[in-house]
Amino acid sequence: MKIIFATQNKGKAIEVKNIFKNSKYEIITLSDLNNEIEIEETGTTFIENAYIKAKTIFDIYQLPVIADDSGLVVEQLNGKPGVYSARYAGENCSFDDNNKKLINELKNFPEPHLAHFICLSVYIDKNNFFHSVGELHGKIVLTPRGVNGFGYDPIFQPDGYDKTLAELSLEEKNKISHRAQSFNKLKHNIEEFIL
Questions:
Q1: Of these four, 46, 55, 131, 190, which has the most CB atoms within 10 Å of its CB?
Q2: Is 68 annotated as catalytic?
Q3: Distance between CA 87 and CA 120 in Å, rounded?
Q4: Tell me, what's the pLDDT at 36?
Q5: Which long-range contacts (CB under 8 A, 24 or more apart) does 83-89 make?
Q6: Catalytic hit among 69, 96, 125, 159
Q7: What domains sit in the chain, N to C, each tagged with a CATH number?
Q8: pLDDT tens per residue, range 5-64
Q9: CB atoms within 10 A of CB 8
């Protein structure tokens, strides 16, 4: 059974395809479909944005779709960047731009800079809609470390680890990450409720 993953993010695609690799579901992405649509995330919550992405792609292809919205929540910044994590430093900004802005904003606060990642994933088809949530707690480090992963991974150190997410292998990251938690729960629901 084919399920479309409504994302243009290559890093997310690799992680989620890896999560589903031993299931009966084949995850295909928008790039696999040569679809370059950029879906505007107009929601103010993670679930709204995930639903917007899934519903947009379902309406085009009429096939089962998964999508997610995820972000970084920093306590000292009153929950920012939150749903604006991907474009925190402005439209068309790079991961590095976002990291530099966040580090700069935290320089005047005392350590530790407690934070957590949240991922809200959704599944939609013509008869079903469900969602799941994953969270990963840790702290922000002010010096980026590591070359794996994407986004805020080089400056996020999970609780219980002396490495950032960008210093972990994909296999290590997929054991603990917010995205892995959320999509593993979602996969379980799909396997349980969808033929």
A1: 46
A2: no
A3: 18
A4: 86
A5: 83/41, 83/43, 83/44, 83/45, 83/46, 83/49, 85/151, 85/152, 86/41, 86/151
A6: 69
A7: 2-193 (3.90.950.10)
A8: 999 888 889 989 999 998 999 999 999 999 988 888 899 999 999 999 999 999 999 999
A9: 15
